[in-house]
Amino acid sequence: MKAFVTTALAAALLVLSTGSAPSGRPAAGAPCAGQIHSNPGFERGTTGWDAGPRIVVLGDAARPAHTGRAYATFAGLDVTRTDLLRTTVTVPADCDLTVRFWVRTTTTETMRGDYLNVGLAVTGIPPKTRFSLAFDGGSQWRQYSMSTGTATTERTATASFLASETAGNGVTTFDVDDVTFTLS
User: Fold this and answer.
1) Strands of the sheet with 155-165, listed across from one edge
2) What is the pTM of this model?
3) Are 65 and 71 in contact (CB under 8 A)?
4) CA nearest 120: which of 143, 145, 95, 103?
5) Per DSSP, what are the bridge partners of residue 70?
6) Smallest Cα–Cα separation from 75: which of 12, 1, 7, 161?
7) In this structure, are residues 159 and 99 in contact, taking their beta carbons and an 8 Å threshold?
8) Using one digit for the tens of pLDDT, what is the confidence trace for 98-149?
9) CB within 8 A of 38, min separation 6: which ones?
């Protein structure tokens, strides 16, 4: 009987000191952790993205994806046009969202005329272009990142990739892959 009372008293003290009894399960993960976009590498085409036609392609030996098989590609036709790719995610209160992405540029352009503008619009903050990449970005994959900062309320964040190509100025292709949306 004495052992039972001692065990019951220890359990009661544990409940009082921690606010709950031990359940044998790990505590739920913090809402500000992990990758939150379901298709960051375009392996499922444009699922989860708003995209213009012919945006997602499968890489090959000559033009492989950064990882996996698929990536988004913009411009490359030497015609005056724009291509848009965007997605919106929810950022929980008190969380910071970091968007990381990889870009590769191939071109025959000799002067600035073709651009890839990368923007991040967050609820309550005027949208702005975070990166304006031109033909001189390089034919190797390069990583870029942008962040929302934290706020006390839930917000939405829209990442957008807008390519603008001008005819007669050479051909520029912008490839984008592995667009991760990580909460912290």
Assistant:
1) 50-51, 81-91, 155-165, 115-122, 125-134
2) 0.80
3) yes
4) 145
5) 58
6) 161
7) yes
8) 999 999 999 888 777 889 999 999 998 888 889 998 877 778 999 999 999 9
9) 44, 47, 48
d(CA 38, CA 31): 16
For residue 50 the two structure tokens come to 């708003």
Amino acid occupying residue 115? Y
Query: Higher model confidence: residue 24 or residue 58?
Result: 58
**What is the per-residue pLDDT across 36-69, written as a single tens digit (0 to 9) for each?**
999 999 999 999 999 987 788 888 888 899 999 9
115-122 and 125-134 beta bridge pairing = antiparallel
Residues 61-83, mean pLDDT to the nearest whole number: 90
CA distance 113 to 110: 9
Name the one residue in this structure whose structure tokens are 């708003």: 50
Residue type, 155: R
* Mean of the per-residue pLDDT values of the chain: 82
Residue 22, number of CB atoms within 10 A of its CB: 9
Q: Which token pair is 6?
A: 């001692």
Scan for tokens 């036609």, then name that residue: 53
